[in-house]
Write a structure and sequence with these properties.
14 strands; 11 helices
């Protein structure tokens, strides 16, 4: 078994591979490290490009696009390593990006997963939306980050330079112990893409494991490479998967309260999209809810399985107030200025 497998999931991403794979190969040459590309049924010339130019990279090929979740689940069943690094194809890595996190996890066996500092490829002095300096979640299930609250991004001015326990680590660059990935059930295939890493991290935390942010490692992320942020399909996945996330993982004492308020807030969001003339966004929210309702039987079973294995019900990394209220009403724009009472 090798020490580290860096696994890049690709779907028609020849341009990203050509642009960013050189940095991965150059900076992942340590002994015990392998670079893999799992191809989700690409119809471009990604595979030809890899075989012609990167003969040392290992390739797993699938017959169709199984999404982020299905692609990784299938690929990681075939890869034997102590640690997996799930790496987006649109990321530029830096020198010594692997060692700080692997070294930290080797010395802290209670850490199941971790992430580096995630900066913007287009503005290298700013945090990037998909994970910034570590992910958190509020009491109603809205994700946010140190360095990114909702749509507001911070500049990296050295304010998040300490290794810190977080609620979730970004799927754009996720370090995870292979045994716990498989033991916990991997990524949930029903999510297909978006928020699946939050679900996985929440399940790990429910079992008493820690998720960490290690800033001594940094990478640069383009973001929105597969689906742009204004895509109705992406909006559908985000709304549907957020409901999946809450239904599966919320402890019973908060379950009905949180789901009720999310239904109300999602309804308000849908009406706002309609008033703004964004009919496709309105329909995305409606479709997301119907998709959620149609799978309640499946997710009830998953919820029961998680409840049976849960050892922790309360997490200090969950913001006990509403991040939406803090952002829009209290005008909070930086993680450091969030109400301290919200963490108690």
């Amino acid at each position: 078994m090798i020490k580290v497998a860096v696994v890049i999931l690709n779907w028609n991403g020849r341009a990203f591979l050509e642009r960013f794979l050189p940095s991965v190969v150059k900076n992942s040459k340590d002994a015990g490290v392998e670079v893999w590309v799992a191809d989700n049924g690409s119809t471009d010339d990604s595979i030809f490009f890899l075989k012609e130019n990167y003969k040392t990279i290992k390739i797993v090929e699938f017959d169709k696009n199984y999404g982020f979740t299905g692609g990784y689940n299938r690929a990681l069943k075939e890869i034997k390593a102590e640690y997996y690094v799930l790496l987006n194809s649109d990321i530029e890595v830096t020198e010594n990006w692997l060692n700080p996190i692997i070294y930290f996890m080797d010395g802290h066996k209670d850490v199941a997963a971790a992430m580096p500092k995630l900066l913007s490829y287009d503005d290298k002095n700013s945090f990037e939306y998909a994970g910034a300096a570590g992910g958190f979640i509020d009491k109603l299930g809205y994700p946010f980050c140190r360095g990114r609250i909702l749509s507001e991004l911070e500049k990296d001015e050295g304010q998040y330079e300490e290794a810190t326990e977080i609620f979730w680590a970004t799927g754009a660059c996720l370090f995870i112990r292979s045994d716990l990935f498989h033991k916990t059930g991997g990524l949930d295939d029903d999510f297909f893409a978006h928020m699946e890493e939050i679900d996985l991290c929440w399940r790990l935390k429910n079992q008493g494991h820690k998720i960490m942010y290690i800033p001594q490692s940094r990478v640069y992320h383009v973001g929105g490479g597969t689906l742009p942020n204004d895509n109705p399909k992406k909006l559908f996945l985000n709304y549907r998967n957020n409901l999946y996330l809450l239904y599966k993982n919320l402890p019973k004492e908060h379950f009905l309260y949180v789901l009720f308020f999310r239904m109300v807030l999602d309804g308000i969001s849908a009406i706002m999209y309609l008033l703004q003339g964004k009919g496709s966004f309105f329909m995305s929210v409606i479709k997301a809810h119907f998709a959620f309702y149609s799978t309640l039987g499946t997710f009830k079973k998953k919820r029961n399985e998680i409840a049976a294995s849960r050892t922790v019900t309360s997490h200090n990394e969950m913001f006990k107030k509403s991040i939406v209220f803090s952002f829009f009403i209290q005008k909070t724009r930086k993680f450091s200025t969030l109400n301290s009472k919200g963490w108690k």
